[in-house]
Amino acid sequence: QVQLVESGGGLVQPGGSLRLSCAASGRIVGIYTMGWYRQAPGKQREMVATMTSRGSTTYADSVKGRFTISRDNAKNTVFLQMNSLQPEDTAVYYCNIHVSWGQGTQVTVSS
Questions:
Q1: At residue 95, what are phi and psi to the nearest 5 degrees?
Q2: Which pLDDT tens digit goes with each residue over 19-62?
Q3: DSSP for 37-95, written as a single string
């Protein structure tokens, strides 16, 4: 099974930006639909953004216009650019490609 490793999380002030990365151990980026999900304390995991193999994207209404999913097929890496972050974006963010999930990276938005 392909391993996914997320990075780029951290503490940021409201209005700030972060860029998450998800590195895959095998060549699956661009082959399967990939996505970013998040889970806040006491809440269910929710979809944040997805991208199909053809490049079609879907975003949760709460992040439209602020977050952008992208990929680098050559580097087997998926990205999530997050701008205008708000406290309600605080969560553990997970990368998913096909049946593989990453371990998650914490994003905390607080002043």
A1: -100, 140
A2: 999 999 988 888 889 999 999 999 999 999 999 999 999 999 99
A3: EEE-TTS--EEEEEE-TT--EEE-TTTTTTEEEEEEGGGTEEEEEE-S--GGG-EEEEE
